[in-house]
Design goal:
Two copies of one chain form a homodimer. With about 250 residues, chain A is of the alpha+beta class. Chain A is built from eight helices and ten strands. In chain A, the strands form two sheets. In chain A, strands 1, 2, 3, 4, 5, 6 and 7 form a seven-stranded antiparallel beta sheet that branches. The first copy, chain A, has a three-stranded antiparallel beta sheet with strand order 8-10-9, with no helix packed on it. In chain A, helix 1 packs across helix 2.
Amino acid sequence: MTAVIKEQTQPDQKQDVTGILQRSLMFSDMGADILQPLVEAATLQIVPKGKILFVHEEKAEFFYVIVSGWVKLFRETLNGEEAVIDVRNSGHVFGEMAIFGHDFYDYGAEVVEPAVLVTIPLAILRRLVEANTQISMQIFRLMSQAHRLQIGELEHRSVQNAPQRIGCFLLRLCKPGDEGPITLHLPYDKTLIASRLGMKAETFSRALARLRRETGIRTNGGSVEIDAVSQLSQYSCAACSSSYPCQDLPR
Amino acid sequence: MTAVIKEQTQPDQKQDVTGILQRSLMFSDMGADILQPLVEAATLQIVPKGKILFVHEEKAEFFYVIVSGWVKLFRETLNGEEAVIDVRNSGHVFGEMAIFGHDFYDYGAEVVEPAVLVTIPLAILRRLVEANTQISMQIFRLMSQAHRLQIGELEHRSVQNAPQRIGCFLLRLCKPGDEGPITLHLPYDKTLIASRLGMKAETFSRALARLRRETGIRTNGGSVEIDAVSQLSQYSCAACSSSYPCQDLPR
């Protein structure tokens, strides 16, 4: 896929890209020398909302580090329905799994809020992983963290009801130590939140109404007012194997 | 956890364990010399149905390779409900993810059909992964395959309805090339199949009845008769991003 507004990284941007990678989950705290081959091959892109970066089963050439904005990872079924796998933001990577024994993307990726992305060829990452134990161990950790998050997601879809899943989503937007009253702003539109939680839009509306009744939260467009975070966590986390604040979230 | 009927591997069993590992997904086709440290530390266990091998968040000391039988991986929520993460059989491993940046099991494991297991200390695997690129790349492939299967699972729970999910489960029990008529035998009991598919038992019964009506399959206790596999796959795979036979399954 081309047609993306692309800025080839210039010498004075190299330091920025090194810093971006070092602040990402995948390359956190790695030395600039180790990251140099990635930085040299990296391009910075400003990508508008709605842009499809790649589709499921397309041959994989790049992986991406999100600097800002939100990116939806999704699949489409044979009868045209969309399943949202994840919605990721700053510090997260996507497309990287394609380097291991499978040269195709496992999902499509669409920018859902205007984004700045670092794009790096997978071939460079593959060489680095094969040659450098520090990078390969870090990627193991990242993959096992992704694995744990997915297990949590499967658990939630099995045992949390729809209002509890929405409550869980809101709790994950709270900052550590928040007790309330607080006002949250939904990071992307409600239809996408519904899909991200594996619900139809109608189910989401009914479930949100029930969540308001049962926990006293108030919503107004994209804002959510929470008087007592503990009331929301008691309600949602009753149907979860972890207690609030969750240990599985990168903070 | 102890109290498992345990046989310390004897010299004449070493070759068996090497063969078992070489037939597993994790260590397939690896040389006996590479596997030697694992084989030397391995024990073979015969484990009865109902045995809990470890629980979620228990400190992780071993990983397991399944020789025969079925093992359920699960979590329990704060209010006592159980979420089944996966049910695995011969050739699969479990507990191995604990070696990366996290020393605790991500789920509990219970033997649900009498099993023979190879138990190996995680410390040995960790040393091997750090020292041997062939093993670490193989584990990367395995983790990324697990990741893809979980993405498929999340996709199914988002867009397949309950009868389609049961149909998908049955299709995965068919052998490559099966066209029908065939008779399948359910690998474990229906309550567990329901949990594995993220459904309550009542939902499962209703969904199975609808699947029978819509695809003409017949069930009798633990047996399922399918006249035309293609009819079942057309029904289930309409709500999936892959077509039958699935590419994501280890065969």
